[in-house]
Amino acid sequence: MSTPQTQAGSYSSRTYSGSETYSGWAVGWIAFAGVMMIMVGVFQATAGIVGIFDNNFFVTGPHYTYTLSTTSWGWIHLIGGILVALAGIGLFTGNIAARIVAVVLAVLSAIANFLWMPYYPVWSITMIALSVAVIWAVTAHGGEMKTSD
């Protein structure tokens, strides 16, 4: 059985179930992903509510391939935002199903924001970047949240 180790420049590592070593950084990335998903979900739900109640808030050019009314986009963002926020909460359990749902919803969030880009370009790029960060954190360090308790 190995002993707990520390690495220069990183948080201390802990050894669990024999020889597996988990870093405080890895657990921190999963916590980051969970918080970001909650935050992105709230942001998307807020944008969705604005799109539902104020059709003139978001403006686009006349020649956009994926033309939907802002009310339709609002419903997409509201429902998607709620699901993303719930998946973010689920990440704190360390459950593999929650991690799978989180990655799938982060991918769908990035796609929805790509399609939303003509309506709100800077916002969309920011949401895509946060979705990519969440996908990386969950896929690279997902299993370490559960064992770090």
Would you summarize the structure shown here?
With 149 residues, this protein is mostly helical.
What is the secondary structure topology, with strand pairs?
Layout: E1 13-16, E2 20-23, H1 24-53, H2 70-91, H3 96-116, H4 121-141, H5 144-147
Helix pairs in contact: 1-2, 1-4, 2-3, 3-4
Provide tags for this entry:
149 residues; mainly alpha; two-stranded antiparallel ribbon; 2 strands; 5% strand
Number of domains: 1
Strand segment count: 2
State the share of residues found in helices, binned by percent.
55-70%
Residue share in β-strands? 5-15%
Describe the largest sheet.
2 strands, antiparallel
Count of DSSP-assigned helices: 5
Lateral arrangement of strands in the main beta sheet: 1-2
- Unreliable stretches (pLDDT < 50, length at least 5) are 1-16
Kindly name the structural category: mainly alpha
Cα-based radius of gyration, to the nearest Å: 19 Å
Q: Could you give the distance between the termini?
A: 19 Å
Order of helices and strands: EEHHHHH
What's the shape?
elongated
Mean pLDDT over all positions: 77
Overview of the structural elements:
It is a single chain. This protein is mainly alpha-helical. The protein has one domain (29-142). The chain is 66% helix and 5% strand. The protein contains 5 helices and 2 strands; from the N terminus they run ββααααα. Strands 1-2 form a two-stranded antiparallel sheet. Helix 1 packs antiparallel against helix 2, helix 1 (24-53) runs antiparallel to helix 4 and helix 3 (96-116) runs antiparallel to helix 4. The longest helix has 30 residues, at 24-53. Residues 1-16 have low confidence and may be disordered.
